[in-house]
Design brief:
alpha+beta, Rhopdopsin 7-helix transmembrane proteins, Phosphatase 2c, domain 1, 11 strands, 55% helix
Length: 471
């Protein structure tokens, strides 16, 4: 081919090359915007990017100039790419428009999408078997016309658009769609009448449709991000409120050294703990764990704070404390469950009483014997039945004894091999750090837990830990 012919060919194909490159670029921009968002609401940008990229690829594959510029081996797959992009453009468009619809219209579009996919599979499959490229394309075009017509009607009728579209302001998309429909009608009328239809007309029509759709997609994403920021602010307020109902510090009790750690999995937690100091020698410790996570669990955890008023006068009796708490919470749990443990210590007589409601055992380190024991004195979880018995266990304390109250978030995390931290690892860390003060042991346990989990794995549950040393 002479240089003059190559220049003439390039001039003839220049519009398609520019348009194809433009639509590929729009696709990359849409993917980039979706990646930057990284949260919910960006799926529409992904489908928009795929739709634009497929249409742009189709224009470039059609161009003989592009084919000549690519390796000779590309010529063998070029027909398949032409067929695939011709059919898959409508599939990508259906997926993009599906993100804008609600209710019955969404179900109609899902049927339309299924038909798109079936025709695309049939068309591409038939080409692979017979080499025919246009066998099913007419069905593809009829389906596109029907779907586009339905969308135009919905966008132009306010009552329908309010009922079936997720966007309240869709004027830009309606205008872009109408311009695209007008261009398509002009092309379909002009071709049979042998009027010339420049390639730029088709590309401009699709560009208007795509850009109007992109405007709406970005508006949806920005609105979604603003909503998420508002939720984040509200969660931060909820977090501050939740921390305000937790003890501001540890109580000062003679002959006891106390350390507490509280690590919520999310902004708010379903764990709760409370100190009930009576005087310099008497104090109660409550630890509770609501099933589930997030705001619902946190609301129930806050109810426990209120329910604690029902145990005034009974703080010396773990059985009565748990029974009254269970009765107060039962009607409010809405199908959720709460485990709890209550420990009462009299540091003057060096005695303690303990009871629990489906909670992990109390760990007790006895310095004189160098022995670690697990103390279980459990009744039913709160929420199982309206009233339950909670047996109490009496303990005699000695200098150097150590007690650990915790929620299951401390023992359930798994390592890369799927092995839970578990009671065995917990007891091992306690034994190895028996000489450390309560606060240091608490820090060491949490450090061991972080080391146990893979670095890429985020915290999977709320963690509460109270360490009590008898001085």
């Amino acid at each position: 081919m002479s240089a003059q012919n190559e220049v003439a060919m390039l001039r003839g194909q220049l519009i398609d090359i520019i348009a194809g490159t433009f639509f590929l670029l729009i696709g990359l921009i849409a993917f980039s915007a979706a990646a930057i968002g990284r949260r919910g609401g960006v799926r529409i940008l992904v489908w928009l990017g795929i739709w634009s990229a497929i249409f742009g690829a189709n224009l470039l594959v059609i161009s003989p100039v592009i084919t000549l510029a690519l390796p000779h081996s590309f010529e063998r797959i070029r027909p398949l790419l032409l067929v695939a992009t011709s059919y898959l453009t409508l599939v990508a468009a259906a997926l993009a428009f599906l993100e804008l619809t609600l209710g019955k219209m969404r179900r109609v579009l899902q049927v339309w999408l299924a038909a798109d996919v079936a025709i695309a599979v049939a068309g591409i499959g038939w080409f692979l078997v017979t080499g025919a490229t246009q066998t099913f394309i007419v069905y593809n075009q009829l389906l596109a016309a029907a779907g586009l017509g339905l969308l135009v009607v919905i966008m132009l009728v306010p009552k329908l658009s309010k009922q079936y579209l997720v966007i309240s302001q869709h004027r830009v998309l309606a205008i872009g769609t109408l311009i695209f429909v007008a261009e398509a009608l002009y092309a379909n009328i002009a071709v049979p009448l042998r009027y010339p239809v420049p390639n730029v007309v088709n590309s401009l029509g699709f560009a208007v449709l795509l850009l109007s759709f992109g405007y709406v997609a970005l508006e949806m994403v920005v609105t979604h991000e603003r909503r998420l920021l508002s939720i984040d602010k509200e969660l931060e307020i909820a977090r501050q409120l939740q921390f305000s109902i937790l003890p501001a510090g540890v109580p000062e009790v003679r002959n006891l050294r106390i350390a507490a750690s509280y690590l919520p999995m999310t902004a708010v937690a379903g764990d709760f703990y409370e100190f009930v100091p009576i005087d310099q020698h008497h104090v109660g410790f409550l630890v509770a764990d609501v099933s589930g996570h997030g705001v619902p669990a946190a609301l129930i955890a806050s109810m426990i704070k209120v329910a604690m008023h029902s145990v005034d006068g009974y703080t010396h009796d773990p059985t009565e404390v748990l029974r009254r708490l269970g009765n107060s919470l039962c009607k409010e749990l809405s199908g959720r469950f709460v485990s709890a443990a209550y420990l009462w210590i009299d540091s003057a007589t060096r005695t303690a009483r303990y009871s629990a409601a489906g909670h992990p055992p109390l760990l007790r380190w006895r310095a004189a014997e160098g022995a670690l024991t697990r103390i279980e004195s459990n009744g039913l979880l709160f929420g199982v039945q309206a009233s339950s018995d909670y047996p109490a266990c009496n303990l005699a304390l000695a200098s150097g004894d150590r007690l650990l109250l915790y929620t299951d978030g401390l023992t359930e995390p798994e390592n890369a091999a799927g092995e839970p931290f578990g009671d065995r690892k917990l007891e091992e860390v306690v034994r190895e750090n028996q000489s450390r003060p309560a606060a240091e042991l608490s820090e060491r346990l949490l450090a061991e837990l972080r080391a146990w989990q893979p670095a890429w794995l985020t915290q999977q549950d709320d963690i509460t830990l109270i360490v009590i040393d008898v001085a």
